[in-house]
Amino acid sequence: PQSSEKAKTFVHAFLKRSMPKMKDEAIQDMLTRKAVVLEHYQKKKVKQKRKKTKGFTAKQRRELRLFEIEPEQQRYAIFLPLHELWKQYVRDLCHGLKPDTQPHMIQGKLLKADLHGALVTVTKSKCPSYVGITGIILQEFKHVFKIITKEDKLKVVPKLNNVFSLELDGFISYIYGSKFLLRASERSAKKFKLKGTIDL
């Protein structure tokens, strides 16, 4: 370790080099206070703005026909594996559909579940031509279901004023489309209230 005299000389010389415009008296005055603050400016870190990945607009999606199913793909048999996957998904979601499972618990899970691949039937409708349509849901939008029937016909069924039934392992659930006017992503976060009677 250096002696106190050498240390004092070193500090004085260092300050003289660092602050050449200061007089010796001022430097000596700083040393007597035993605390030296050297001016040092930190460079401000420039935050890089994250570039948001811009998706397609609704108009662009329509022009590119991203959600349209080609006519040659509109076959019921192609989507049967999707239905099998959906059934397994719901069984896992409800921890197995056992006979003693509470119906309201299953109903609550199904209201928030993804319905792509579900086999549904239109049981009631204000438009009689929709009643009896049965098929696998291929796409769910805010206001409509796109359903492929066993006759390989793609039906666009509105949710409004329609009641859909959904059967799985002996459990039948009813979906009131008028209360279901949500996108699948929005539905998963919505809290549904129990109501005694619901009209079409």
UniProtKB/TrEMBL annotation:
Principal subcellular localization: nucleus
Biological processes, Gene Ontology terms: rRNA processing; tRNA 5'-leader removal
GO terms for cellular component: nucleolus; ribonuclease MRP complex; ribonuclease P complex
SUPFAM superfamilies in the record: Rof/RNase P subunit-like (SSF101744)
Protein origin, superkingdom: Eukaryota
MF terms in GO: ribonuclease P RNA binding
Any single Pfam family the record assigns to this protein: RNase_P-MRP_p29
Subcellular locations according to the entry: Nucleus, Nucleolus
Alphabetically ordered keywords of this record: Nucleus, Phosphoprotein, tRNA processing
Function of the protein: Component of ribonuclease P, a ribonucleoprotein complex that generates mature tRNA molecules by cleaving their 5'-ends.
Subunit and partners: Component of nuclear RNase P and RNase MRP ribonucleoproteins. RNase P consists of a catalytic RNA moiety and 10 different protein chains; POP1, POP4, POP5, POP7, RPP14, RPP21, RPP25, RPP30, RPP38 and RPP40. Within the RNase P complex, POP1, POP7 and RPP25 form the 'finger' subcomplex, POP5, RPP14, RPP40 and homodimeric RPP30 form the 'palm' subcomplex, and RPP21, POP4 and RPP38 form the 'wrist' subcomplex. All subunits of the RNase P complex interact with the catalytic RNA. Several subunits of RNase P are also part of the RNase MRP complex.
Family indicated by similarity: Belongs to the eukaryotic/archaeal RNase P protein component 1 family.
Name of the molecule in the record: Ribonuclease P protein subunit p29
Species annotation: Origma solitaria
